[in-house]
Amino acid sequence: LAMDVCAYATTREPDDLDHHSLLAITPPPTTTERTTTKRTTTELTTVATTEMTTKMTTEVTTGTATTPGNTTSGTTPPPTTPPPCECPDGEKGIVDPDGNCHCPPDCLKGKKAVIVNNRYKCPDHPPCGEPPNCVVGRKGPGCSQPDVQPCSGRRELWTGTCCDRRPPWWNAGDPHLETLDGIKYDYYDIGEFWGCKSVFNDFGIQFRYFAYQRASLTGGVAIKAGPSVLSIMTVNTSDPKEFPKLRIDGMLVNLTAHVGQKAKLNNETVVMEIQTTSSSVSDPTGVALISLQYESGLTVTAYIRHSQAMGRQYLNLLFTPTVAFKGHTEGLCGVMDNDPSNDLKGPDGELYNDTVQFADSWRITAVHNNSGLRGSWSWNSSNFHSDDVMDLSYNDPNYVPMYSLDGIGDVIVAKATAACSSLGLTGTILTSCIYDVAVTNDTSMTAQENLQQDCPDQCSGKGKCVNSTCQCMTGWSGDSCQLGNCTDCSAKHGTCVKGFCKCEDGWEGVTCEQKATCYNVNNCTSPIHGICQRTDQCRCHDGYIGRDCSIIPTCSNVSYCSGRGICIDYDVCKCQKEWTGNDCTQFSCGSLDHCSGQGRCVALYKCDCDSGWAGASCAVPDCTGVNQCSGHGACVSSDACQCYPGFQGVTCGDVADCASLGNCSEHGVCMQEKQGANLTCSIASLCYF
Questions:
Q1: What value, to the nearest 5°, has the Cα angle with vertex 448 and ends 446 and 452?
Q2: Does the keyword Transit peptide apply (predicted)?
């Protein structure tokens, strides 16, 4: 937690031995020993922190600080009470040093003014606000607790409990595409393309688009799962319940026999699940849902659908990458690095301005022998199996894509507009829906856009959206089917994470019920040196290395970690919490949340804050650049004000004017809803501060 003026003063416990800190912890001395022994490192750190925290608390509470060598002695004389005077409203004022009558001001929230230096002054607002109106980043009693909004990621697009997963990438419709950094575009040509590939993460997806009328839809997909290759090809059929063709390493899979079952691939690091959807009344066009869950957290889900109007199947694909893919993706999905400006990059590194040219650059024309078989994946050619035959609709030389509704009859367009509008769709989703329905003349196409509208998380690729609610596959739960269940995971030695059983150290196997042994590595030498993590695989404690943790490394070239850390490999230090650098000689301000990333650590427990930030850990926003909100607002971020009722403007220095709103009919307080927005009337009892 950030230790700043917002936090309660507490005595810090000895630091854990994690990747940020290492403190030498010794057993407490006996009663006799306590009178003679020196303080241990832990005791010194705890005392230093306690003294620092107490000092900080005293400074915040009293507004003063004692400078070393500048102390006062003797008895402080009692304060004198200034003479009273009469105020215009009948209140009693005080005569200030200039001889003027100083009257008490009206303070916010009914607080009474106090006398400071023979003048009345309203009590200062706590630097972190007062509940329920804490400044940004604080919450709880007295606004004393940090409040990290879920996965804000400093404006990056992340989700998941640990903010380690990107929101799903959706390839749907004709198709309607979007890069992982958020650039939306349509591409209606046909053929085979790289959907997304990451050589760094040993993962790739290839698409096949087929033509219908003057648009295209996804008819096939090839996916890499470790050394295995999966391909799904939709079929021409009038039967809405017929399954597509699924191949794993070239072998055709009987989907009927695998519905509701888990198939494990790549040494059980990839789990495939299949669910039928054709029986659903709310989704009559659904055929099946085929989902791949990777142990790394990656998810790929194919939704197979059937169109009665087209007399064939098509599929939509959902891809949820993890943080490991950042900066390591290319293809139609773009470069995932939170920089949309470089998303439209082709395979040769050229940056395109035209989305159609960009998509064309990722077309696949090359083939190779044994394609689609185990261990045959190629980063330069098609990975579909030779039996995954494409008909003329995938490569018709006379096909010309249509990017507008020109030539579509008004009646059909009106029908499409009515069907899509009735679902409450808006924005680009509405536009895409109208196009899909009009071009295919199939109103069942609205189902896929409704999925995006009603269930933004796409049910995490582990369920289907019905009436704005996710119906999860067997083994998955949560509002967006984000929780994987493990019915066979050992309750004693394992934890279920994303459908995979994660074993504790010393245990292994699919259910974490097998005891690991390390006989071939000398049992990791001793419990002091390391522990047996998996069979014949040790996890060495800090200060020991080697296959059996028997080697003690030295750090002579980095000053032996300067006595502020421990040597964990040759010339590699693991520093104590308050120190950093190769030799642990630089201040880190670890106890001050590393200055919150908004300042520099200049000494032990001392941050030099960037402009716009204040507090011991630079976590408190400062509004010096906007006149401290003129005393009429709360500083909620760096130079950003939230004005109190009755005030407006960037600095909250302007009186709010609601004349155009009848001055709130004298039943409300004129306030600004948000900076730059129109003025609105708010019921007084609902106003903040």
A1: 115
A2: no
The residue written with tokens 């005891």 in the block is 515
What tokens were used for 46?
């705890």
**Can you say how many angstroms the Cα of residue 336 is from the centroid of all Cα atoms in its chain?**
14
Span between the terminal Cα atoms of the chain, in Å: 26
Q: What is the pLDDT of residue 138?
A: 65
d(CA 189, CA 400): 8
Name, in order, each residue with C-beta under 8 angstroms of 498's C-beta and a sequence gap of 6 or more.
Answer: 293, 295, 297, 484
What is the C-alpha separation between 525 and 522, in angstroms, rounded? 5
**Cα–chain-centroid distance for residue 11?**
31
- Enter the tokens of residue 298: 């990656």
Q: Where are the beta strands (DSSP E) in 522-638?
A: 530-534, 537-540, 565-569, 572-575, 579-580, 586-587, 599-603, 606-609, 613-614, 620-621, 633-637
Note if the bond before 126 is cis, omega within 30 degrees: no
**Residue 350: DSSP 8-state:** P
Residues of the chain with pLDDT under 70: 1-82, 108-110, 117, 123-140, 142-175, 278-283, 447-457, 487, 498, 657-689
Please give the distance of CA 16 from its chain centroid, rounded to a whole number.
26
Pairing of strands 494-497, 500-503: antiparallel
pLDDT for position 147 = 59
Distance CA 303, CA 315 (A): 5
Q: What is the pLDDT of residue 297?
A: 83
pLDDT value of position 20: 35
| pLDDT confidence of residue 548 | 95
The predicted model scores a pTM of 0.56
Q: Please, what is the angle between helix 427-440 and helix 446-454, to 10°?
A: 170
Query: Which pLDDT value is given to residue 355?
Result: 94
List beta partners, residue 572: 569
